[in-house]
Design goal:
With about 400 residues, this protein is mostly helical. The protein contains 13 helices and no strands. This is Mg/Co/Ni transporter MgtE.
Length: about 400
C-alpha cells in the first residue's frame, strides 16, 4: 500500500515540477517567491500530514467516527486545520517578506506577500482538507491502514494544489496591481484576511468544550501544534533560502527544476509514512519508547526499499518529462539519475533516524507523537533534503 501511494505521489509531483518550471517569470519578478512556494508546500504537509496521522491513530484505537458533527474526532481535526492554515499562511507571508528583504534585496511590500501567501495557502488548504476527509472515508469503508497511505498522498496532493493556487494568487495580485487603486486593494484584502484569521482563532479558543466527547480536541491540537509549526517554519524558510540561492542553476537545468518538488515530497512522504506507523505503534503499545531503534528495524527496511524504487522512478519520469516538454536536456540521463539516487539514499538514511528519535522524544516528554512527529521531521527534512540535493548536484555538475 505504501509503495503504491508513493508511486502515485511521485507521478503527481511531476506536474508540480512542470508548473514550477513554467513559473520562471514570477520567480524572477518577485524576489523570495521560491522561499514562499516551498514554505507553503511544506506547511501543507505539516498541517494535513499530522491530521492524517491523528485520524490513522483514531481508526486503529477505535475512536474515529466518519462524521463532521461537533464533538467528533473528524470535526476537531477539521476546525483546527482551518485555524492553523490561516495563521501559518499569514506568518509565512510576513516571514518571506522579511527574508527576501534581508537576504535577497527584495522590494515587494509586506502586504503583497501576505496576500499571495494567504489566498493561495487557504485555497490549497481547503482542497487538501477535502482530500484528507476523502482518504479517511475510503479508509474507514475499506478497512485500510491509512498510516501507510495518508502521508504520501497528502504530501503529493499538497504539492499539486499548492503550486497552482500560489500561481493563481500571484496572477490575481498582478492583475490587481495593474489597477490605479491596486496597492490599496491588496492592502485592504490582506488586512481583512488577517482580521478574519484572528476572529477564527478567538472563536476556537473560547468555544465551550465537554469531557464527554472530543469537542475540546480542536483547541488542544491548535495549542500544541502552533508552537511546533512556528519552529518548523524556520526550517521551511531555511530550505527556501537554500533553494532560492540556487535558483539560477535550477532554472538553467530544467530537469532539476522538474525533479525538485518530487524529491522533497518523497522525503516528506517517507518520513510521514514512517512516523505515522511509529506513532500508532506507540499508542497501541506494540513499540516501546526506547532510544535503541531495534524495534523499528522492519519499518526501516520497508522505507529503504520503497525509497530506492520511488527515487529511481522519479528520476526516470522527470528526465522523460524534460525531454518531452522542453525538447532536450543540458544534463545527461546518467548524471540526473545518479544525482537523485545518491541524494535519495542519503536523505532516506537521515529521515529514518530522525523520524524514529523525534517520535520517541515526543513520547518521552509526554507529548502526542501524532501532533509533533510529522511537522518536525517534514520541516527538518525539507531543509536537510534541499541541502543534500544541492550538495550532490554540485558534485555532478
Amino acid at each position: 500500500m505504501g509503495l503504491t501511494a508513493l508511486v502515485i505521489a511521485g507521478t503527481a509531483d511531476l506536474f508540480a515540477g512542470l508548473l514550477l518550471d513554467q513559473m520562471e517569470d514570477y520567480l524572477l519578478t518577485i524576489t523570495g517567491m521560491m522561499v514562499l512556494i516551498y514554505s507553503a508546500i511544506g506547511m501543507r504537509g505539516n498541517i494535513f500530514g499530522a491530521m492524517g496521522s491523528r485520524i490513522g491513530t483514531a481508526m486503529n484505537i477505535g475512536t474515529f467516527e466518519m462524521s463532521l458533527k461537533r464533538g467528533t474526532v473528524l470535526r476537531a481535526n477539521f476546525d483546527s486545520a482551518i485555524a492553523l492554515t490561516l495563521v501559518m499562511s499569514v506568518a509565512m507571508g510576513v516571514t518571506t517578506w522579511a527574508v527576501a528583504l534581508v537576504f535577497f534585496g527584495g522590494k515587494a511590500d509586506v502586504w503583497d506577500l501576505v496576500f499571495i501567501s494567504t489566498v493561495g495557502g487557504f485555497l490549497a488548504g481547503l482542497i487538501v482538507l477535502g482530500f484528507n476527509i476523502l482518504i479517511a472515508y475510503a479508509g474507514s469503508k475499506r478497512g485500510w491502514d491509512v498510516d501507510n497511505i495518508s502521508a504520501p498522498l497528502i504530501a503529493a496532493i499538497g504539492d499539486i494544489v499548492t503550486m497552482p493556487m500560489i500561481f493563481l494568487s500571484t496572477w490575481v495580485f498582478f492583475k490587481m496591481d495593474d489597477l490605479s487603486f491596486g496597492d490599496e486593494l491588496v492592502m485592504f484584502l490582506s488586512a481583512a484576511i488577517v482580521i478574519l484569521t484572528a476572529v477564527d482563532v478567538a472563536v476556537l479558543l473560547v468555544r465551550k468544550t465537554s469531557k464527554r466527547n472530543f469537542s475540546g480536541e480542536a483547541k488542544r491540537i491548535f495549542k500544541q501544534s502552533l508552537p511546533v509549526l512556528m519552529v518548523c517554519l524556520v526550517f521551511e524558510i531555511g530550505a527556501g533560502i537554500v533553494i532560492q540561492d540556487e535558483q539560477e542553476s535550477l532554472i538553467a537545468y530544467s530537469v532539476l527544476m522538474i525533479m525538485l518538488p518530487a524529491f522533497l515530497n518523497q522525503g516528506n512522504a517517507l518520513s510521514g509514512m514512517l512516523t505515522s506507523r511509529l506513532s500508532s505503534a506507540i499508542h497501541l503499545g506494540t513499540l516501546r519508547a526506547k532510544w535503541s531503534p531495534r524495534g523499528a528495524s522492519n519499518d526501516f527496511l520497508m522505507i529503504y526499499i520503497c525509497a530506492m524504487i520511488t527515487f529511481l522512478y522519479i528520476g526516470i519520469i522527470s528526465y522523460g518529462a524534460c525531454i518531452l516538454f522542453n525538447g532536450s536536456s543540458n544534463i545527461s540521463f546518467v548524471d540526473s539519475l545518479a544525482i537523485i539516487m545518491v541524494a535519495g539514499f542519503l536523505a532516506t538514511t537521515i529521515l529514518s533516524l530522525l523520524s524514529y528519535y523525534v517520535a520517541i522524544a515526543a513520547t518521552k516528554f509526554g507529548l502526542d507523537p501524532d501532533d509533533h512527529s510529522i511537522p518536525i521531521t517534514s520541516s527538518v527534512m525539507d531543509l536537510l533534503g534541499s541541502m543534500v540535493l544541492v550538495g550532490v548536484i554540485a558534485l555532478f555538475i
